[in-house]
Amino acid sequence: MREAHTVAQVRAAEAALAGQPLMDRAVAGLAATCARLLARRRGRVYGARVLVLAGSGDNGGDALFAGAALARRGAAVTAVLLAPERAHPGALAALRATGSQLTADQDVGLADFRRADLILDGIVGIGGRGGLRPAAQPYARAGRRGLLVAVDLPSGVDADTGEVAGEALRADVTVTFGTHKPGLLIDPGAEYAGTVQLVPIGLRPPAAPVQALQHADVAALLPRPGAESDKYRRGVLGVLAGSERYPGAALLAVAGALHGGVGAVRYQGRPGEEVVRRHPEVLLTPGRVQAWVVGPGSGDEAPGALADALADEVPVLVDADGLTELARLGPGALAGRAAPTLLTPHTGEAARLLGGGVTAQQVAGARLHRARELAERYGAVVLLKGSTTVVARPDGAVRVNPTGTAWLATAGSGDVLAGFTGALLAAGLGAFDAASAGAYLHGVAGRIAAADAPVTAGEVAQALPAAWREVCGV
Ligand SMILES: NC(=O)C1=CN([C@@H]2O[C@H](COP(=O)(O)OP(=O)(O)OC[C@H]3O[C@@H](n4cnc5c(N)ncnc54)[C@H](O)[C@@H]3O)[C@@H](O)[C@H]2O)[C@@H](O)CC1
Ligand SMILES: [K+]
């Protein structure tokens, strides 16, 4: 599991270790990574051209110290100071002692930026506020041929949220210290971070408010039938999806559901005959279910379908047209429910649920904040889909999904996700776990099915068993 902590938590954990050589540990890890990258790229560190961009705080200090370490191994290092009068004095002295060039001339800096083999972005770290300052902005736009290594996080990315106000430096590798920061896991910030490497420095932060699960974590959550299981004990999922107008959504939601570890899927929507023709395993008779999926392709039938599902005191996953109807009704529609509700909006649906003129673009730019806001307002677990899928609980706990491929942005992909995740709910997972495991496996299936080429939602559903096997290591 990757864990991410807020700036305040990092500061508190650092304060608890006052007197320990935290910066030395950070710099040692940073310099070792840079040396490894240079050796891989050009065979050796000796003779490499390295540019250090150093701001006014300890982030700049880390970059300058690492530059000094590389200079001692024969790299030709230039440091550009963005706030010369406030640069870290000890780190400046260390770099000066190697005979490296120091300058405050940004034209020299930009020329070196374009031709360096490796650039260290130490403009600003967890102390950064409010986006890049004007002196740093040209570096976010300039072309380059070398690798860019962000120190702790890419300058311009908000550490706590992943939001980017204006511009940010785009890194190939981010070397982060002590713990991940939420902004490294959540888009748009995550996109700027490249590959993230964690350098342990001995911090002991509290429970992480933001987590990213990995294979073993998800494998531990997935349902496994015991010797005593029969189809009813493994759970039955009810699907209220599809309509005369949109029968495809029903087929895809059911296709996802059939791979989600339930004993049976009970389809209660309109195009029942077609569903059974394609999926003969499906039950059409009414009866008890352990969870509902409602909304994909429900069209005009969404109001009735949503009311039916919410009236049943079992977990309910609301998607697509169900969400549009819920946005019309408002959070009050969920107020009386004792069983969990899971909402799976894309950014447009999330904007509608939030109301008040919030746009899809605003949701995409502040995923963490908006997912938490929705979860709190509706008292429901929210799975906010998109370039980084974020799962938020009403108490603010968040899991960020690390799997997926841009090819998953295809028609019907969300229907498969809804059916599959609903099945995990019916199989007994809590809403937070079902949402995180559902998004995770759906992303792995997308990658397997797409293999770097366009993919259909049906193919993603077919790849779910392979994803399940990969994640469980069988
Ligand atoms: N505190 C510690 O124990 C450790 C800190 N470390 C490093 O220290 C960094 C934090 O250092 P600081 O607290 O000095 O903070 P930073 O170096 O991140 O930035 C603070 C400085 O940048 C200025 N600043 C704020 N926003 C800016 C912006 N948008 N553009 C330009 N300048 C801006 C501030 O005026 C302040 O002088 C971490 O990111 C990490 O790199 C590591 O060495 C590990 C140990
Ligand atoms: K930085």
Written account of the structure:
With 474 residues, the protein is of the alpha/beta class. It folds into two domains: 2-211, YjeF N-terminal domain (Rossmann fold), CATH 3.40.50.10260; 215-472, Ribokinase (UDP-N-acetylmuramoyl-L-alanine:D-glutamate ligase, 3-Layer(aba) Sandwich). Helices cover 42% and strands 15% of the residues. It is built from 20 helices and 17 strands. The strands form two sheets. Strands 1-9-17-16-15-14-13-12-10-11 form a ten-stranded mixed beta sheet, with helices on both faces. The chain has a seven-stranded parallel beta sheet with strand order 4-3-2-5-6-7-8, sandwiched between helices. The model has no long low-confidence stretch (mean pLDDT 96). The chain binds ligand NAX and potassium ion (K). It catalyses: (6R)-NADPHX = (6S)-NADPHX; (6S)-NADPHX + ADP = AMP + phosphate + NADPH + H(+); (6R)-NADHX = (6S)-NADHX; (6S)-NADHX + ADP = AMP + phosphate + NADH + H(+). It comes from Streptomyces tateyamensis. Homotetramer. K(+) binds at residues 59, 121, 155. This is Bifunctional NAD(P)H-hydrate repair enzyme.
How helix-rich are the residues, as a percent range? 40-55%
The major β-sheet equals: 10 strands, mixed
- The overall number of domains is 2
Strand content: 5-15%
Round the mean pLDDT to the nearest integer and report it.
Answer: 96
Cα separation of the termini: 20 Å
CATH superfamily of the largest domain: Ribokinase
Which small molecules are bound? ligand NAX, potassium ion
Here the CATH topology of the largest domain equals: UDP-N-acetylmuramoyl-L-alanine:D-glutamate ligase
Q: Helical region count?
A: 20
